[in-house]
Amino acid sequence: MPAPPRMSQLAAQLNQAWLKKGPVALCLLPLALLMLLLVSLRRGAYRLGWLHADKLPVPVLVVGNRVVGGAGKTPTTIALLQHLKAQGWRPGVLSRGYKAQLPESQTHVLLDASSAHKLNAAQTGDEPMLIWRRTGVPVMVGRQRAAGGRALLQSHPEINLLVCDDGLQHLQLQRDLEVIVFDARGGGNGWLLPAGPLREPIHVPTTPGLVAPPLVLYNANQASTDLPGHLASQAMAPFCELADWWQGRAPSSTLKPADCKHETTWAVAGIAHPQRFFDALRQQGFACETIALDDHADLSHIPWPEQARDVILTEKDAVKLDPDRLSRERPGCRVWVAALDFRPEASFWLALDAALKKLPACHQPG
Q1: Which pLDDT tens digit goes with each residue over 41-99?
Q2: Fewest CB within a 10 Å sphere: which of 15, 24, 91, 175?
Q3: Are 222 and 347 in a shared domain?
């Protein structure tokens, strides 16, 4: 079995160190105190108006987390977009597009029905491509989010709400609503980077301009901080073959534990916490070899061996593997996509809808 990438090993070691106030965390505490000072000064400057936040013509809902790593922002964003569409909203998405390789001289790129066939996950980043494939909502990718938002509204004037994927600390963009996502780690040891996992303290003053208090969503079985919030459950949907998933088709067949042979079945994950994915597969009875890749691994080289006959991928990895390329480079290998069924509890949707009603009447769907 291939050894895990060194970055994956380092990330796993850091995540373990950040769960307690041990020797590693204590050595890094002075840097964390400096981080706290910088975060406090920056937030204070925006709160007092010394730094300017850009206001867009339509309301902005920011989805983010206080900790580094995968807490469930992308599944939350997808669930939010599906709910908003069902409620009559016409949302658009702003995303930084981590590791996106934008075309030369472009500061942002639009991902929609007219452009998606010309773009790939390397150009847009894997998470924006996944959001578009799962929801069909126009996505603007770029670091300059205010400029990207205006460009998105110019291309899609029907949009009446912008959802900012992973922008909680991006205070340059004024927002109207915030959704803060935690997983079972909560705030870890409670310290800021690099001594702990926090990007900012758990308790910070409310961001100026919000129409309602931030909504907290726990991607866990129970609340993992003292912030009041709502729970979300997640489970794997029936596996779908890669070609069907890329075309948005219902599974024409699926993979069952009884179909798997340990020596020819592999699970591959290039996410923040790959072991969670592997554990979930084992809990469902799947016996397979595993390959943990670095988060956002580009899959420029297919990482599993040629003898593999069935490979299970996360959706975040599936967007980076073209079915035509798979048939050329691994003929006879079936790749299965494990889609995530992410479900916030009903109280979250009630709280969200109540917060949305506090937006100005001119922005309400109608």
Answers
A1: 999 999 999 999 999 999 999 999 999 877 889 999 999 999 999 999 999 999 988 87
A2: 24
A3: yes
> Are residues 169 and 198 located together in one domain of the fold?
yes
- 90: Cα within 13 Å, side-chain hemisphere: 12
Asked if residue 124 belongs to a domain, the reply is no
Same domain, 193 and 225: yes
Which uninterrupted H or E stretch holds 247? none
pLDDT band at 10 (very low <50, low <70, confident <90, very high): low
**In the beta sheet, which residues pair with residue 216?**
180
Cα 352 from Cα 80, distance rounded (Å): 9
- Under DSSP, the state recorded for 66 is S
Condensed to tens digits (0 to 9), the pLDDT of residues 159-193 reads: 999 999 988 999 999 999 999 999 999 999 999 99
213 with 317, same domain?
A: no
Residues 242 and 230 in one domain: no
Same domain as 267, residue 218: no
Kind plus residue range of the DSSP H or E element containing 161: strand 161-165
Contact by Cβ (8 Å): 151, 35: no
Q: Are residues 351 and 289 in the same domain?
A: no
Structural domain contains residue 15 = no
**Closest by CA position to 177, among listed 56, 60, 83, 82:** 60
Tokens standing for residue 271: 């996410």
Is the pLDDT at 3 greater than 70? The verdict is no
Which residue type occupies 203?
H
Angle at the Cα of 227 from the Cα atoms of 223 and 232, rounded to 5 degrees? 40
* Amino acid present at 145: R
Our count of domains for the chain comes to 2
Please count the CA atoms within 13 angstroms of the CA of 126 that sit on its side-chain side. 22
Same domain membership, residue 214 and residue 164: yes
Q: In terms of Cα–Cα distance, which of 315, 336, 341, 325 is closest to 129? A: 315
Domain range for 353 is 60-89+160-234+343-361
